[in-house]
Amino acid sequence: MTINYIYNTQGQIEYAILPLELWTAIQTYLPMDLASQLKKTAPKPIFEPKNYFGLLAPLNLDVETELKQMRQEWNKSF
Q1: How far apart are CA 63 and CA 13, in angstroms?
Q2: 12, 5 contact by CB (below 8 A)
Q3: Is the pTM of this model over 0.85?
Q4: Per-residue DSSP letter, 57
Q5: Which residues contact 16 (CB under 8 A, 6 or more apart)?
Q6: pLDDT over 70 (residue 31)
Q7: Average pLDDT of the chain, as a whole number
Q8: Rounded (10°) CA dihedral 7, 74, 64, 60
Q9: CA atoms of 14 and 7, how far apart (whole Å)
Q10: Over the stretch 36-71, which tens digit does the pLDDT of each residue have?
């Protein structure tokens, strides 16, 4: 079971991504009022990809350059 972290620009942990099994186990230890608040969240709307068509077009990104930069970031060792 792996917990993944998302870091901000200062290099500090900002978010944690938990496996579903771990999150389910953690919820059993939450206070009842907090657990009930988490369960009352609004239902997620159905994902419609057509709503996002052309979203990045105005940014005029060079996709090949962006991919190369991402690959360089992957190869960095921490």
Answers
A1: 28
A2: no
A3: no
A4: G
A5: 3, 4, 5, 6
A6: yes
A7: 84
A8: 0
A9: 5
A10: 777 766 677 888 889 889 888 888 889 899 899 888
